[in-house]
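DM from R.C. (forwarded with permission)

"hey, sorry to bug you on a friday — could you get me a structure for this? deadline for the figure draft is monday and I only need the backbone to look sensible"
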Amino acid sequence: MLYLRNAAHMYKLKPVFKERIWGGRHLETLFHFKLPEGKIGECWAASAHPNGMTVFENGPYEGQTLADLWDAHRLELFGPYPFATFPLHVKLLDARAYLSVQVHPNDEQAQRLEQEEFGKEECWYVLDAEPNAEIIVGHTFRAKQEVYTCVQQKEWATRLKTQSVKKGDFIYIPSGTVHALGPGVVLLEIQQTSDRTYRLYDFDRVDDTGNLRELHIKKAVEVMNIPDRRTEELIRTDLDSGLTTELISKPSFTIMRHQVDGTPAILERAETFRLISVVSGEGFVQDEDGTQAIRAGEHYFIPKGKGPHLFTGKVEIVTSKVPVPTSHRVNTVYQVETAQDKHRQVSSRLNTEPR
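My reply, with the result:
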C-alpha cells in the first residue's frame, strides 16, 4: 500500500485555542497540542464563527476558512442548505473548574433576541474524566419567579441537579437546558454555530481584573425550560462498544462514533459534507487517491460527494453532519445578510481578537 500524506479527499483544519478562567493544560497532555500560554479551556476544532475561524491546513483550500468555502461553494462542497451560516461548531473542552451555570437560546430566540441565525443546541462526548467528576444538568424551578428568588438568596445548591460522568458518556444539551460542565472533564462538544451563552450563576468568581463576570439573568429566564424536562433522558451511559454507533440524530446534527480496532470502518460517499474528529488512537484513512495517517486531536472536513473512505488502525473517530432541512424558518427581525457581513468583516483580522 502506498502511504501519501494528505492524499485522501479529507482536509485538515487548524485549531483555534481559547483561554478560559476554568481551563487548564490537559489538551496538551492528551492530544500533544502546542498550546499558547495560560489556562486553555477550549480548542475550536471546526469553526466558521467570527470569534475564531478554523483554516484549512492542506489541499486545494489551504489557507481558506470554512466560512469562505460556505459563501463561495456551498452547493458544490456542502450540500443544498438554506442557511446563511455554516451550521456546525466542533470543540474540545478541558474543564479544571466548574463552567458557569448557563443556558442557550433556540433558533427563534437567537434571531429575536440577538439577531443571530442559530441558537445553541449541543452534545458532549466525554473523552476523559477524573474519579467523581460530575456535571450540572437540569433544575427544580417550577416558575420564573423562583429563579429570581434563587438569584437573590443564592439557593443554587438545592436548585441544580448534578450527574456523575465518566469516560465514554454522551450527553445531549438541547436549547433551554440549564447546565454546567464540572471540573476534571475533557470532552468533545458538537453544537450549532453559536457563541451565545446566558449565565445564571458563576460561583461568585472574579476575572483577572478582580471583577465578577457578567450574568444574564433576564434573558436566561426567558429561554430556559420552566418547568424542566426529564433530564435523565439526555444522558447515555455505558454505550455499547462496536464498529459504528449512532450517538444522536436530530435536525441540528447527526453524530456517529466509529471504533476501529482490527476491523476497518468505511464511510460511504454522502450527499452532504461531514466533519471528522479523531478522539483517540492513530491509524490511516484511504480513498481512491491514496492514504494518509491520522491521530488523536486532528479534525477534518470531507466535502459532499467524496468517498468512500476506509479507516484502519487502532483509532476512534466521531463524525458529524447536518441533515438538509425541508424548511428553514427565519424570524423577520433577523436579516440573513447579518451572518454573511460578519464573515466578510473578519476576513482581514482572522482569529486576532483579544483573549
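R.C.: lifesaver. The chain has a mean pLDDT of 91.
me: no worries. The two ends are 45 Å apart (CA to CA).
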